[in-house]
Amino acid sequence: HLPLFPMIRLAIQKSGRLSEDSLNLIRECGISFQTSSYKLKTEATNFPLEILYLRDDDIPGYVQDGVADLGIVGQNVLVEAGLPALELEPLGFSKCRLSLAVPRAAGYDSVQDLQGMNIATSYPKILGDYLAERGVKANLHTISGSVEIAPSIGLAEAICDIVSSGSTLLGNGLREVETVFRSEAVLIAHQNLTAEKREILEQLQFRMQAVRRARR
Ligand code: PRT
Ligand code: ZN
Fold first, then answer.
1. CATH number, domain containing residue 211
2. Belongs to which family (predicted)?
3. Averaged pLDDT of the chain
4. Based on the domain organization, do 102 and 174 belong to the same domain?
């Protein structure tokens, strides 16, 4: 059905590391809504907001196309999708880094040592740009998960993956050698919102900023 009053549509991750903090942020903004695990969207009861639950990788494209007006996603996913211009503001959670790592016993002095190496990653764009800026040519192998096991199964001599505590690298006999990119969750928006939606967005951002100030 068509809403009788303007509403803004926000895409958040359905289930994963961003989900709980995204939902908490919306709730702390004083916005009430029902959730259930099988529902893919929900309408707030006291604010003109509809929430869509998606895979995080799909969020930048949906916001770019205007299927969703707003999204909450990691900068790593946003920049890898080639859509950094959609970012409005950092949200202060899901902080992590995209790092290069090599087997613990391997020698490593500088990024130049990666010349000609096979590197497994889920972030070929961010890593490719990083290496190109430094004049390093490597063979990037794009895999979508379990990147950390690539060296031990002979698929690559190095990896580039998301790190937070570092315990996954440690557990797989790897040593972090370069930080390629620092990331946190960000609010993103479609670039041609109607005036009515821009007004709702302003109210939402005002509340989000108040929540962040109160948390400090
Ligand atoms: O299903 P969907 O596609 O929506 O989710 P997903 O599996 O692609 O993403 P998810 O939920 O794992 O992560 C969502 C976002 O959280 C990422 O895009 C990052 O912006 C952010 N984030 C923060 C992390 C981590 N911390 C993190 N630690 N994403 C992944 N990890 C992985 C890391 O790669 C490692 O394999 O968690 C593992 C443990 O990390 P350590 O260093 O603490 O051991
Ligand atoms: Zn994903």
1. 3.40.190.10
2. Belongs to the ATP phosphoribosyltransferase family. Long subfamily.
3. 96
4. yes
